[in-house]
Please model this.
Amino acid sequence: MSPDHPDNIAAADFRPDLIRGRQLVTSAWLAALASGVRVHGAPAAGWRLIEVGCGGAALFEQGHIPGAGYLDTCYIEQQPLWNKVADDALLALLLARGLRHDTTVILYGRNNLAAARAAHLLLYAGVADVRLLDGGYALWLAGGHPCERGPGAPGGMVPAADFGAAFPAHPEYMVDTAQVQALLRRQDGVLASIRTEAEFTGKVSGYSYIVARGDIPGARWGRAGEDGDVNSMSAYQLADGSMKPAAAIAAQWAASGIVPGRPIAFYCGTGWRASMAFFYAWLMDWPQISVYDGGWFEWSHHHGLACDASASGQRC
Model:
């Protein structure tokens, strides 16, 4: 039977509770697409599959989703604060990998927060069709789908001559410290802390390399995951790592005054959890959303800015 036979058209399998449901794909849908089966919502020719990780190249070569290339987050963020690289460096990276504004990019990770970090930056850059594999590599394996070994796709990549659109196309998706200060002065502005309760209340900093404890005065607690685990987003995800229903996420945000229609900046320690929260809000088509790239790390290092250790009542 030909892959083009109508009986081989895979079910849409997109989330009806998400306005941008096609941008959150399942492992079954991706497996069908990769095998040549006709699927609803199929991207145009030339789509790219990328695993995103941090120091994970060796693991990638031991086994990954067939057809994937590997991107390390060290190329999209930089020390000392792990903010995104400069715009010219980000553009050069995308062009070197053959990524233009009209390239469909499907991302996943062993830690899917790394993939969300890249997804946010691709949207900021202006890639129009960015998709995330729900549940990442873990759900791919759980579905019994095949893997392959080796260095992956990048070796045969053809660099792009130009991005094909203004760059960055969506600078409003990223805010800096000065913009956060301005946001906090607005009556309708919302700064959403995507951190654990222990981080938000100042019991812990959450990171071995961040000394300061507390949170930004005026921030609203948007929740994250389990205390002691900066890679947990359990408040947003089911036990298998897939996204909770949009209504459940919106309800927990609403309890803290985080509602659509207000300008919202998400942040965490250095950007990964905030990027996942941003991506989920983007899937729900919330307007006026952004990520405070510097997060708690930059805020707590910025001269003249106070941090609020609300659990102890102390200032740091």
User: Anything to note?
Assistant: Residues 1-7, 309-316 have pLDDT under 50 and may be disordered. DSSP finds ten helices and 14 strands in the chain.
